[in-house]
Amino acid sequence: MPIIKSKYHKRPWYFFNGHFETIIPSLFYKVEGIQYERERLELEDGDFLDLDWVKQGNKRLIVLSHGLEGSADRHYIKRPAQYFSQKGWDILAWNNRSCSGEMNRLPRFYHHGATEDIAAVIDRGLEDGYEEVVLVGYSMGAGMQQKYLGERNPDKRIKGAISFSVPCNVQNSADMLRKGAGRIYEKRFVSKLKEKILAKAEVVEMDVDGIRDVKNFRQLDERFTLKVHPEYSSADDFYARITSDQFLPNIKIPLLIVNAINDPMLGEPCYPIDLAESSDNIYLEMPEKGGHVGFTIPKSEWSYMEYAADRFIEEVIFSQTSKQPH
């Protein structure tokens, strides 16, 4: 498909660059007025996931997947939950292991390639008889849903997916976080993950040797992730196998990727231009501005992400669905 010409152009005047566009919403934006119903989903491995629902008896469901160290309470999840619940959708916003406010039971946490978890969530949503399901993911959650769609044969009721600020290539994104101002984000993420690992070690028997000395993602993965995921032989093997770009050619339903050019966490390999130009299903939108999961619109309660998702659902996903034989 041709590259989509973006309609996002005007950011607030005080958002001077991609860093401001990323950091200010993350630190200060709040969303009021959305009430979740929580359900605990027990997993086959003995762990659990907490699901936050907005159920209104609709036949359509949107599944929202958050980013690294996010949750269903983050502004970028609650905002689309509110937006689409007002437009006739039920909402399933799920929390990755350890992200719901309660520590998970097993030594492992979550990662970009943990599609067994998003698969369990989607299967649970389908149990309620929804006729149409759309997946909407942000950053890590977007990569996870892309890998899920590309490595599996999803249920026919899943009609399409939308990904915002997605690190299509995990190794490249990790490299970006080790350069210049990107280190600010890496330091923050790694610090939060170290605290979480050490807190869990007080109640779950696990090897945390060297965790306090970890300075970056590679060290964290080498000293922790590989211990709880022995199926990966090295950090490089881990990054290579969990990254979603290798699965994109296998996706058979409409997928929109919206990655801002000034996203401080994404490098060139995270913009699959050649694939989008040759694919029947992959749509790529690259606004000049927006930052990472930012896309703020001046004096609006919504961001550009809600409008872009809504437009893609109506103009592409439903358009293709209506052409399918019944």
What does this structure look like?
This protein has an 8-stranded mixed β-sheet, sandwiched between helices. The protein is globular. The chain has 10 helices and 8 strands. The mean pLDDT is 95. Strand 7, helix 9 (273-278) and strand 8 (282-285) form a beta-alpha-beta unit. It starts with 17 loop residues before the first helix and ends with a helix. Helix 3 packs across helix 4 (140-151). The protein is α/β, with parallel strands linked by helices and 326 residues long.
Query: H/E order of the elements?
Result: HEEEHEHEHEHHHHEHEH
Low-confidence stretches: none
Summarize the main sheet. 8 strands, mixed
Largest sheet strand order:
1-2-4-3-5-6-7-8
Shape: globular
Strand-pairing-aware structural class: alpha/beta
Overall mean pLDDT score?
Answer: 95
Q: Using only CA atoms, what is the Rg?
A: 19 Å
Distance between the termini: 25 Å
What's the number of extended β-strand segments? 8
Which percent range describes the beta-strand content?
A: 5-15%
Roughly what percent helix? 25-40%
- Counted by DSSP, the helix tally is 10
